[in-house]
Amino acid sequence: KAGVTQTPRYLIKTRGQQVTLSCSPISGHRSVSWYQQTPGQGLQFLFEYFSETQRNKGNFPGRFSGRQFSNSRSEMNVSTLELGDSALYLCASSATGTGSGEQYFGPGTRLTVT
Amino acid sequence: QKEVEQNSGPLSVPEGAIASLNCTYSDRGSQSFFWYRQYSGKSPELIMSIYSNGDKEDGRFTAQLNKASQYVSLLIRDSQPSDSATYLCAVGGSGYALNFGKGTSLLVTP
């Protein structure tokens, strides 16, 4: 099976702009989670989607949003970018519909905000 | 705040030795426990999952879980230089999210 794919892999944006990141889960996986990874804070949970419904959201401002499509592909959007949003954004998919099961990560999108 | 704590390291072990990585967590309701390996510049890779008390072995890796002590560990036998990476402990509850520790850096020296 193909793994989780994320596009784009690298992105450079300016403060105040917005950005949309895309994630395609492993075939058959209906749960998609997003994480932000920074050297100082480590991996932090952003949100999780299952069957187009957001089931959980981490402690991030409303500038961070996401959605999931009927084919399980997911997008996350960050509006009004700040320098502190520079990070590796990771998408993970899971076959588990309940609880917190095994999650498989994509390669990530490296976002740099200047 | 649900905490997952790991010693940041670096943990240095000679090639062929056993590397022991430890993790504690604060949420007693946690149900699932994972170890991920992350090479520099790469994304985390799932290497072990454990859901019940005791040991679980997979090749050179053994995960150990003690829910009473809220403690998870990972043993790597016959450590190889290619095992040098950051190891992330992740803990899951009923809320569909994994809570990650900040990782332990492992260095295996030839």
Secondary structure tally: strands of chain A? 11
Task: Based on Cα principal axes, name the global outline of chain B.
Answer: globular
* Total of helices of chain B: 0
User: How are helices and strands ordered from N to C of chain A?
Assistant: EEEEEEEEEEE
> Ends of chain A: how far apart?
37 Å
Name the structural class of chain A.
Answer: mainly beta
Helix content bin of chain B: under 10%
Uncertain residue ranges of chain B = none
Structural class by SSE content of chain B? mainly beta
Q: Into which percentage range does the β-strand content of chain B fall? A: over 45%
* Poorly predicted sequence stretches spanning 5 or more consecutive residues of chain A: none
Note down, in words, how this protein is organized.
Chain A is mainly β and 114 residues long. Chain A has strands at residues 5-7, 10-13, 19-24, 31-38, 42-50, 53-57, 64-68, 74-78, 87-94, 104-105, 109-113. In chain A, strands 2, 4, 5, 6, 9, 10 and 11 form a seven-stranded mixed beta sheet that branches. Chain A has a four-stranded antiparallel beta sheet with strand order 1-3-8-7, with no helix packed on it. Chain B is mainly beta. In chain B, the strands form two sheets. In chain B, strands 2, 4, 5, 9, 10 and 11 form a six-stranded mixed beta sheet that branches. In chain B, strands 1-3-8-7-6 form a five-stranded antiparallel beta sheet, with no helix packed on it. Chain B is globular. At the A-B interface, β4, β5, β9 and β10 of A face β4, β5, β9 and β10 of B.
